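User: Is it possible to get a 3D structure for a protein together with its bound compound? The compound here is cytidine-5'-monophosphate. I've pasted both below.
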Amino acid sequence: MGKFNVALDGPAGAGKSTVARMVAKELGYVYVDTGAMYRAITWKVLHKDIPLEDLSAIADMTASTRIELLPGLTGQTVLVDGQDVTERIRSKEINLHVSHIAAIPDVRERLVSMQKSMAAAKGVVMDGRDIGTSVLPDAEVKVFLTASARKRAERRYLEMNASEISLDDLERDIERRDQLDRGRKVSPLRQAEDAVLLDSTEMSLDEVVNAVLELCRTKE
Ligand code: C5P
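Assistant: Yes, that's possible. Here is the predicted structure of the complex:
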């Protein structure tokens, strides 16, 4: 079999990005962090002072925005209309608003169509919430990666050097975003029927990566 696509979905902080990046590197595939795209649009909404309730202005802005994901040294460099926003899209303020922006149907339609074309040539490892269910329903490998909310908060906490938020606040933020992501009307967060469930609460990063690579080997 030639190249295939890998869809990696799951709730916030489950380790999807790290796992997806490592799996992509191992396979020599392209890694696409779709959460970064929703964060990029959220950053622009706030940066341009577009009122959060002005859905048509947000939709128009999204339609005319250029988002580029470039492979970086430690992760992905995110450009919005040529401007590097890699660091800025990880702020507390973006975390607070991103799930509201991601629930706007026009925003999703536009970003999903970009994501589909990024994966059209295959050889992509894509992480997000709706990859296996709606962006790449035909992905050859589908994984739903989860872990307890506490464990996910602990991992995020360790990742953040500047502790601008406490562990308890992080856990609350993660649970709040999960609720919004699971409850929204358009392509909510859920496990695709044909996705393999991996609960990483008691697994190391290497164990998770190896489990995903094992699934990939059955497709090679
Ligand atoms: O993956 P990350 O935590 O960076 O995603 C940020 C937010 O973007 C999620 O909480 C979710 O609201 C939204 N998102 C989405 N669909 C995706 C990826 C992310 O709705 N495929």
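The chain is about 50% helix and 15% strand. The beta strands are 6-9, 30-33, 67-71, 76-80, 83-84, 124-128, 141-146, 196-199.
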